[in-house]
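Page 37, top half.
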Amino acid sequence: MPAMHLFEYAVLRVVPRVEREEFLNVGVILYCSSQGFLQTRCHLPEARLQALAGPGLDLNDLRARLQAFERICQGCQRGGPIGQLPVASRFRWLTATRSTIVQTSPVHPGLCEDAAAMLDRLYEQLVA
């Protein structure tokens, strides 16, 4: 039987108008300590977001915010001070509760053989 690894994930959500509490799932962030894995996969459904948000939605700003999540996951210097933290700390920082246009769901645990394959599966189930 293949080894199973504990992982944690959260769904990335765009909340265009925080006061209305409506959101669209746009990505998934997954962390697996035993595999040293921290990645996010996301996509902006522009037409759906504009229909939900109405005029004034800045898609370029949203793209920049999601790219920041990716840079922090990569742990490179381009991720700024947060990108230099240990992997677990970066995941905790990215999934911390915030009241902005990009938010994360609560963190959920699970078991997997391959963290990258699980990220793809969760993305397909929760976002695509």
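Page 37, bottom half:
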Amino acid sequence: MTQPLGILLRHGDHEAAHYALVLATGAAAVGRDVTLFATNGGCRLFLATAPLVEEAREALLESRGVAGIAPLMEAARELGIRLIACEAGLKAEGLAAASLAPGVEVAGVITFLAAIGAGQVISL
């Protein structure tokens, strides 16, 4: 049995969000249970309006043959990655839970840590 992987996304820029999804989908593809927990600016990744997909870096990555946020988010859902937006992080950024994409949970850090247990945590 493999250790669960928790990814803590603290930054809302495209680069951090993109690589959080690269790590999450890669780990899930090799059979690890993955929880992606976004807080503060990182919550932008989970917005229903998908603002990061509209950034120039998304098109640049795709033009270079690198999967962008949109296909990685689709893969994350297909692979069963647990997506959690931090309740306090949403409040800190002035974001409403209703603005999140379907399937994103709202919970606190205790829920995140309980999901990971003694597993590995990566922070971006």
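Margin note: Strands lie at 5-9, 34-38, 82-86, 105-107, 120-123.
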